[in-house]
Amino acid sequence: LDNTALHEFTDILVFLLHADPNMVNAGDMNGSGNLMDFLDEPFPDVGTYEDFHTIDWLREKSRDTDRHRKITSKSKESIWEFIKSLLDAWSGWVVMLLIGLLAGTLAGVIDLAVDWMTDLKEGVCLSAFWYSHEQCCWTSNETTFDDRDKCPQWQKWSELLVSQSEGASAYILNYFLYIMWALCFAFLAVSLVRVFAPYACGSGIPEIKTILSGFIIRGYLGKWTLLIKTVTLVLVVSSGLSLGKEGPLVHVACCCGNFFSSLFSKYSKNEGKRREVLSAAAAAGVSVAFGAPIGGVLFSLEEVSYYFPLKTLWRSFFAALVAAFTLRSINPFGNSRLVLFYVEYHTPWYMAELFPFILLGVFGGLWGTLFIRCNIAWCRRRKTTRLGKYPVLEVIVITAITAIIAYPNPYTRRSTSELISELFNDCGALESSQLCDYINDPNMTRPVDDIPDRPAGPGVYTAMWQLALALVFKIVITIFTFGMKIPSGLFIPSMLAYHHHDWIIFRNWCRPGADCVTPGLYAMVGAAACLGGVTRMTVSLVVIMFELTGGLEYIVPLMAAAVTSKWVADAFGKEGIYEAHIHLNGYPFLDVKDEFTHRTLATDVMRPRRGEAPLSVLTQDSMTVEDVETLIKETDYNGFPVVVSKDSERLIGFAQRRELILAIKNARQRQDGVVSNSIVYFTEDPPELPPNSPHPLKLRRILNLSPFTVTDHTPMETVVDIFRKLGLRQCLVTRSGRLLGIITKKDVLRHMAQMANQDPESIMFN
Amino acid sequence: LDNTALHEFTDILVFLLHADPNMVNAGDMNGSGNLMDFLDEPFPDVGTYEDFHTIDWLREKSRDTDRHRKITSKSKESIWEFIKSLLDAWSGWVVMLLIGLLAGTLAGVIDLAVDWMTDLKEGVCLSAFWYSHEQCCWTSNETTFDDRDKCPQWQKWSELLVSQSEGASAYILNYFLYIMWALCFAFLAVSLVRVFAPYACGSGIPEIKTILSGFIIRGYLGKWTLLIKTVTLVLVVSSGLSLGKEGPLVHVACCCGNFFSSLFSKYSKNEGKRREVLSAAAAAGVSVAFGAPIGGVLFSLEEVSYYFPLKTLWRSFFAALVAAFTLRSINPFGNSRLVLFYVEYHTPWYMAELFPFILLGVFGGLWGTLFIRCNIAWCRRRKTTRLGKYPVLEVIVITAITAIIAYPNPYTRRSTSELISELFNDCGALESSQLCDYINDPNMTRPVDDIPDRPAGPGVYTAMWQLALALVFKIVITIFTFGMKIPSGLFIPSMLAYHHHDWIIFRNWCRPGADCVTPGLYAMVGAAACLGGVTRMTVSLVVIMFELTGGLEYIVPLMAAAVTSKWVADAFGKEGIYEAHIHLNGYPFLDVKDEFTHRTLATDVMRPRRGEAPLSVLTQDSMTVEDVETLIKETDYNGFPVVVSKDSERLIGFAQRRELILAIKNARQRQDGVVSNSIVYFTEDPPELPPNSPHPLKLRRILNLSPFTVTDHTPMETVVDIFRKLGLRQCLVTRSGRLLGIITKKDVLRHMAQMANQDPESIMFN
């Protein structure tokens, strides 16, 4: 390398490192190039992004590599530095460990609290008020499996207050208190969200997808959000609203991820690296939500993440493992299994059953489409009409309706997870549920497996009617519930909805046959189909389902249902519920799944368009500080291309607005002689200036010398591909070496919306 | 759009479509631009690649989008076209279905054939010679579980030939015939491979990884390879060599994929789309190899594939499902399960056991490192010394040694899958294996689960010695076997090796305790650790292991062992066995897992380097046909940048060598007036020429108007990232709009090798 190249090289390094305190800032009046004035400190906030802006993945990656290099080269200097470099290398795994531990603990605490508070609506444990119904009667050691409801320590409110456990007045009192508790929980939840953490509402998955794709929403994953979301999640699930804790648990886990990543400079100072941690945290969240570590990793990969290198795969795997393991140690379900709804079927399935499974897939797809359409229509109404101005009232009304309708029906009164676990399970000999009220053969010669052969008792018919009503009610209420200003998840409600459905259909169908099918299996497949229709997951869904239930033998039915459900739902609209909500909120999210197939070229999308004012550019050696300041003031672009001269339009680099402002401010304050008519130089060596001219301002170090360019003839599909894969913020358009225009991520999104006949102006954060 | 833009647009479309039969080729002597001469047909082979070249992913994608657009616009013309467009849209799923069906069938046939031929080495079934030992005694209906060996229809060779079943001479005769059969199978296999399909050797996974990353190896996935690999795979597995059928099954499935994709023009004419099918086929291959459809999809994603859009995920999922289902219908294992080694443990594992599991992970990592080092050293020796010249002899010798040593030990004599299934299983009451030879309590009061409490009988100690010997032997022989010129897989041998190991250690350790651990679980975890060490898979490995065994409860132990094993093995070297073989063979494979962290810039890597002759370029309007031909003749570059003029060096596009040659040849044959001193024009409108000047040659349509450019200051890590993510063949380097040089994929690979202190010249196909 000769001297010039070396100089150039140093300059680039300085640019890349940014934070070097001894930043070279040559600006010698005599132009000798030997005297240099040093800035005392780097500009504050250089390398960070403003709120609601998009990050530049390539730059973040490059910054991380530099940091890594610096540590590696330092590590050879002393043992202390070597230890520090080791710590740095292991910090990724440490963060994963911490996330896993905290997410697992929080999930365990939430499970226990929900259990307790759900039962609190019905009564209280006299021996220890912090026990749930099950724990209360469990420790009392007086109950067998059958008379769980008859344990003396557990008192319904009516028993406690008016010493009456049966009769109409007791029923009404219990009913009333049930509703009051529910309203109380819901009101507390919605108030906490409104006052302390507005970002704690909703499922959080659409926003997390957007954040992971490179958007900045400050505070969305903050400590307050973490705290409030955890507390309100317990409250809303306990209040009996038709929502699940699974989506919000992913949000909670991501908040944990954000919190721990802020403890390590490797992650806190680099938005790209931070997103790797968040991807893994999302996996940990699903892992604890369903007790499905592998399903969690796949969910993160298939559904949530944007940039998912293999390294993140392994780390997610580790975080999900630790989280699941922590949850298992807390053991909130009291069965020392990872799995919430563990089922053990022994019946193999038959080829002929594939047809009903596929049918379930079709139903699931239809239900998914219907749900998305209705929910989005309702949410749009909420956004655009006066309805959206009364979120607290809305929550109160929905909670009241839910509680009033839910209480009389035993299948909606209890918590959804209890119900699902009952539906998934086969009837055993010990089962006391109404659903298993088959007339027992008094001689009991046949083994337990043959239970479905027995004629159904009256309980089964009652149960079926109640389930049918519960199904209709849940379907309707879930549409209104999802999207309210409280933490709300989707998984369990949609799984639930479907169970009922297939129970009713298939119970009737299969009872006559001696070689009867397993109804629990149909419930499982139905749940998968339904969730598949709503979220459009496939592989991760199947893995979650069989991790959830332990039904490994039934991969083929689950896969068949999931794929069918996706096909059917995709025929009516490509968007899953999360994409639909992203769209509704207008987040700038460039979906990997959408294919861009139009014939447009870069030249059709770039700005300036035909007839517009020419592109605002900086020149490398002819603009004064004042010119630059005027340009900054008059425009609101995030950055400016730097060209050789306005005539030649040959591109040499790109300068960020934010850094230009900071650099000029800094120079004006600290560098003597930099005045409004100082010339700004982006070149390597400013020419020798006449002695009386003002001190020049050298800004090469804030210049990005490797801006991304495409030619004007590049098809837009290639441009979209490049934006997606490289995570660009903007891209410059050239023709035969001349700068023509610029394409930003928002231009791309706007163009895609336009091509899909949507309103391009909806693509904006609002 | 004004007229010029429209013209330009048409030109680009023509370029993009390439195959348009009415390709515009303006070349009118008068320069009026109205008269055009049409070529009768497109150039043959335009848009294809030469053997051992890299494909351009962006271009392939763009070509596919164009094809798609054309079909969509045509579909509105008539019902027939509409049906054709529907067929086209569904052809992807049809191909997946066909691949699944064929791969499943082939796997079933291979399983059955291997079963039969393995037993053929020992004897023959008299009632029907095409029955394996098990089938023979099964149909005879005379055997209980205990005396499987004593069924009259099954005759050992000694019984058949000299009517003697016991005694030294019978043993020697059986021994001799066993070796003879093995040699016969191996010789047949190696000869078939050498004569008919040299590409059918090895596991195929390194080559498939390279092909999927965008390299062309013609015939590697051809019909002959498919046929010969299937036949020889049966032969070598039956011959008793220490190799598995899993890797080759992936190769077989990919051959199926290639075959079916050649039936649909959507896939046969587009190398990018074809690779999507191949990724899915690889998933189907693993799916049938292990009966693990989800594991197969993950394997394809984590280990094999390069470009894996979500669409491919769903299709792979479908192909894997169909393949597994087909295999289940064929039911080669006679247990109507998808799972080969189905185990059912009921013992939960304890926290304290996590330590031995992690220890197993450490051992697995160490074994993986050792195996890779030794195997690569041996393979390098084979490549460089005279050894490589006698592949047939090598196979014969290794087979002979394997057979001679294997026969006396019952654990090596039988097929590896039988052995693994015995090791995985717990001892039940009905088990007749020596390993379960615990002394039975004559009172038999305790339930079956308590078997490990009983004192071990002499059979257990014998079995342990035999297993220890088998372990050592298998480890050594596998190192020599993997890489020979026959189809060979790795999975099963490495899984096997490890089983023995942990059996020996943990059997001793656990026997005294009453609360004994499950030895089968240790075998399973050990297998996972070991495979993890060799292949460096993590998530897919765990999923495969639990799909293989049905041990869903043991995710945490499996995950712990897999992650530990990967960490330990990575500490000694980042390469897994497949990457090591890719490296050894010098395939141009740009690994996604390697991180490039050096400080070099694009300018350090691009050619021409300092002091070299300047870059060979074409000018847009000043070179004659002869000049171009001379340039093509004198250089061997795959393409040439086109600039405005040699002085300005402003880039306008890039022309492929192959297409230049074809276009000039075509023009000289068909276009009157194109002679050696015709001017070649890459511009839109050639200027009006004087009347007596030769007919110009317009080549704008073969010009790629959107070549990929980076600036000379771009850090190499960004360039590497761009090459990886966008799948480029080459990238042009500019500085302020002027063309400076070119970086090809091989330059990148050479530079990476140089930075890692390896010989850069090894990066080449050889």
Automatic annotation (TrEMBL), chains A, B:
CDD domains: CBS_pair_voltage-gated_CLC_euk_bac, ClC_3_like. Gene3D superfamilies: 3.10.580.20, 3.90.1280.20, Clc chloride channel. It comes from the Eukaryota. It is a multi-pass membrane protein. The keyword RNA-binding does not apply. The keyword Ribosomal protein does not apply. It is found in: Endosome membrane; Membrane. The chain crosses the membrane at residues 90-114, 175-197, 217-237, 249-265, 277-301, 354-378, 390-407, 463-482. GO terms for molecular function: antiporter activity; ATP binding; voltage-gated chloride channel activity. This is Chloride channel protein.
